[in-house]
């Protein structure tokens, strides 16, 4: 039996890229401004529970491999832990800890009654067969069975996991419980208790808050130019919804290049082109341009929706957007924050901008527990209400306390979680 080597720490070469350090820097700044006492800071800083499991899996060729998996519950002060599970070779405990704390702040900013959690397995999902992925997922679920549940910790899809992964987790959990428990995970297929509107929710949330921000500049969707990085779930949905709503998507950036059209890209045709050719490049309705040129072009809105750490202290000064809507988690490093602030860029921070996903996950959990399902219009209306309310809360807080939007979002979130902890008291 082969035990995996200890997790790689991919950020050792550049601490600026370590998501845990970025999360801690923002936490420290907000905690200090709030004047939180040392004891409360210690509670808020420490994950409530961290579970590490070693997962034996029978491979298709008869060998046994052992994968390392994590589930971190950062906070359960305001409700069950909530957050995705990712499968990737560079998953590390530091990364999972940072992502779990972001979930706590994201749920608090949107005032959803959840805490924060995150999970991951160190593996290369691209070389695992569907059968191997299913066996790994089911064994992982079984090994964290005691630590998850509708009232305890509710996982969801994240990088390289999807509706099918959630269906396997739900089934394994239900088999061990002795009855079907759909509310143990969100992001499930509709036929197993998933919510209408969930696939579009994060992109839709980005569009809603972007429109609110545009109003502050006296702009509206019919004239606004947008550059989007990432044409996946978040970026692709945002591009599609925004184009339909009248925004002008002037550039789309993918890992292999970018396409540009000053008059606005036809997103539906671009999606068809990518489906047929495997790339957004060489699209008849635009011109290929360099990725950097696209990312740093003059635009009303820049929407990074691909991955973390794309805006750093080395390149933040090159951004020429009025509004930065952070669709991805952690696209900006903490060291780049002050550069964006000095340039006067209106940042919609990730814990607010991409909270549409967890908001509709909350709706899914509510619907599962009620056993009563909403139509898509109701889901979208309620999403809009929460996103606009949260946007207004953050911007009002920033103006009142004379801080930038990210600091305001963190302060608001920390304050809400700290208040819940104070009300509950420290159980001894
Ligand atoms: P995804 O895998 O569906 O899409 C990511 C896209 O980015 C892909 O098309 C990929 O080719 C592209 N990409 C990868 N590297 C790139 C690069 N260097 N330059 C340009 N493009 C690149 O993932 P997703 O679900 O859309 O998630 C994107 C981000 O949004 C992640 O940070 C994720 O954590 C965050 N997020 C997702 C959700 C959700 O509901 N899916 C919710 C909140 C936050």
What does it look like?
This protein is of the alpha/beta class. Helix content is 44%, strand content 18%. The chain has a seven-stranded mixed sheet with strand order 10-9-8-7-11-12-13. Strands 1, 2, 3, 4, 5 and 6 form a six-stranded mixed sheet that branches. Nicotinamide-adenine-dinucleotide (NAD) binds next to α7 and β8.
For the structure shown, list the relevant keywords.
Rossmann fold; alpha/beta; 428 residues; seven-stranded mixed sheet; six-stranded mixed sheet; single chain; binds nicotinamide-adenine-dinucleotide
Under the CATH scheme, which architecture of the domain at 201-353 would be assigned?
3-Layer(aba) Sandwich
Return the string of H and E elements.
EHHEEEHEHEHHEHEEHEHEEHEHHHH
Which geometry do the CA atoms define? globular
Counted beta strands: 13
Question: Which distinct ligands sit in these coordinates?
Answer: nicotinamide-adenine-dinucleotide
Question: What gyration radius follows from the Cα positions, in whole Å?
Answer: 21 Å
In the predicted model, the low-confidence regions spanning at least 5 consecutive residues are 1-9
Q: Report the β-strand fraction as a percent range.
A: 15-25%
Query: Number of helical segments?
Result: 14
Structural class: alpha/beta
CATH class of the domain at 201-353: Alpha Beta
Mean pLDDT over the residues? 95
What's the story with the biggest beta sheet? Answer: 7 strands, mixed
Cα distance, first to last residue? 42 Å
**Strand arrangement, major sheet:** 10-9-8-7-11-12-13
CATH domain fold name of the domain at 201-353: Rossmann fold
CATH superfamily of the domain at 201-353: NAD(P)-binding Rossmann-like Domain
């Amino acid at each position: 039996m082969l035990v995996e080597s200890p997790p790689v720490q991919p950020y050792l070469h550049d601490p600026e890229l370590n998501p845990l350090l970025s999360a801690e820097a923002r936490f420290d700044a907000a905690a200090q401004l709030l004047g939180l006492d040392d004891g409360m800071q210690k509670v808020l800083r420490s994950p409530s529970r961290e579970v590490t499991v070693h997962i034996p899996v029978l491979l298709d060729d008869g060998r046994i491999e052992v994968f390392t998996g994590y589930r971190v519950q950062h906070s359960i002060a305001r409700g069950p832990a909530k957050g995705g599970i990712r499968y990737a070779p560079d998953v590390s405990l530091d990364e999972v800890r940072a992502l779990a704390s972001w979930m706590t702040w994201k749920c608090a900013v949107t005032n959803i009654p959840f805490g924060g959690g995150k999970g991951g397995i160190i593996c290369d999902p691209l070389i695992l067969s569907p059968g191997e992925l299913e066996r790994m997922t089911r064994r992982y679920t079984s090994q964290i069975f005691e630590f998850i549940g509708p009232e305890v910790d509710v996982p969801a899809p994240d990088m390289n996991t999807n509706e099918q992964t959630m269906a396997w987790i739900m089934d394994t959990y239900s088999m061990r419980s002795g009855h079907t428990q759909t509310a143990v995970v969100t992001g499930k297929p509709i036929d197993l208790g998933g919510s209408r509107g969930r696939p579009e929710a994060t992109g839709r949330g980005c569009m809603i808050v972007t429109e609110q921000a545009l109003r502050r500049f006296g702009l509206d969707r019919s004239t606004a130019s947008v550059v989007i990085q990432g044409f996946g779930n978040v970026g692709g949905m945002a591009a599609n919804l925004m184009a339909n709503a009248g925004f002008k998507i002037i550039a789309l950036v993918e890992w292999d290049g970018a396409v540009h059209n000053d008059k606005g890209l036809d997103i539906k045709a671009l999606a068809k082109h990518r489906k047929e050719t495997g790339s957004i490049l060489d699209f008849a309705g635009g011109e290929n341009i360099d990725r950097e040129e696209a990312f740093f072009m003059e635009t009303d809105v820049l929407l990074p929706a691909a991955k973390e750490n794309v805006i750093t202290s080395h390149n933040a000064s090159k951004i020429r957007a009025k509004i930065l809507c952070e669709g991805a988690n952690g696209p900006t490093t903490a060291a780049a924050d002050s550069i964006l602030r000095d340039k006067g860029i209106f940042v919609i921070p990730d814990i607010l901008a991409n909270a549409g996903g967890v908001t509709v996950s909350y709706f899914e959990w509510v619907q599962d527990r009620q056993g009563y399902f909403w139509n898509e219009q109701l889901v979208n209306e309620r999403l809009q209400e929460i996103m606009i309310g949260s946007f207004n809360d953050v911007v009002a807080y920033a103006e009142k306390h004379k801080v930038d939007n990210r600091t305001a979002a963190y302060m608001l979130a920390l304050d809400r979680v700290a208040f819940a902890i104070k009300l509950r008291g420290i159980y001894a």
